Amino acid sequence: MTQSGPAALFSPARFAFFRFIFLRHAQRRLRAVRLANWGAPRPGEGEGPLVIYANHPSWWDGVAFMILSTELLPGRRMFIPMEAEALSRYGFMRRLGVFGIEQQSARGAVAFLRTAQSVLADPAHMLWMNAPGRFCDVRERPVPIAPGLTRLAELAPEARFLPLALEYPFWTEALPEMLAGFGPSIPAAELAVLDREARTNRLRTALEAVMDRLAEDAIARDPGRFRVVLEGRAGMGGIYQGWRQARAALRGETFDPRHDPRAGG
């Protein structure tokens, strides 16, 4: 890898600092980060390079990648492709494993594949990416699959492809939930024997299946179907919540800031 590659630019100290910043931001702006009880990465997926490919419903996806990668797959280094123009507005991310790609150009596609191949040559590395290559609603079907993702199986034969579903519904609180769930991984060798159209369909089918399963849990609005990865804020906050808390303290009562304590979570 050249000295300008994402692995050479990566700074562990800056990554740790911005991980702290992202965690604090998520705690202030989200009710909770929740992982489906069925949706943790399997033990065997901790070996060899990983390609985690997710749907792309929100700006929050990058924060989700940061939180989930460090909490669920610690000790492995994460790299993320990002549209070059957008990355130009967040230059610090280049030191966190994020690298720019030019979309809608042959030159950009070649550069992405070359960089991704070099990243995945290290068995301790993970490539996290949004499969559609653009924002799209969780209800959109079929889920778009970017051509670059389909090609990766040819270039990283030791990798495993792990589908990840993300949703950000509002339940009973003023702040949204971040819901996540991983599906079973697919070995690159299993994908590489397929032609590219069949390979795209295989990746799409796996991602849609985990998205549909997560949607069922989101619709149920049952925190018991999830484990909390990160606890955020409950209640409306502000002066009124402070007054309620002070009143409960004066009365010797336990203060619960949630809008609907019966909802659990």
Description:
This protein is an alpha/beta fold. The chain has helices at residues 6-9, 12-29, 61-72, 84-87, 106-120, 147-155, 188-192, 196-220, 238-251, and strands spanning 32-36, 50-54, 77-83, 98-101, 125-130, 160-167, 177-182, 186-187, 226-231. Strands 1, 2, 3, 4, 5, 6, 7, 8 and 9 form a nine-stranded mixed β-sheet that branches. The protein is globular, with a radius of gyration of 20 Å. The model has no long low-confidence stretch (mean pLDDT 89).
Estimate the strand proportion: 15-25%
User: Please, what is the average pLDDT?
Assistant: 89
The whole-angstrom Rg is 20 Å
Q: Given the helix and strand composition, which structural class is it? A: alpha/beta
Q: Element order, helices and strands?
A: HHEEHEHEHEHEEEHHEH
**Main beta-sheet annotation:** 9 strands, mixed
Quaternary status of these chains? Answer: single chain
Q: Enumerate the spans where pLDDT stays under 50 for 5 or more consecutive residues.
A: none
Helix content: 40-55%
Q: With helices defined by DSSP (H or I, 4 residues minimum), what is the helix count?
A: 9
**Overall 3D form:** globular
- The end-to-end distance, rounded to whole angstroms, is 46 Å
Q: What's the total number of strands?
A: 9
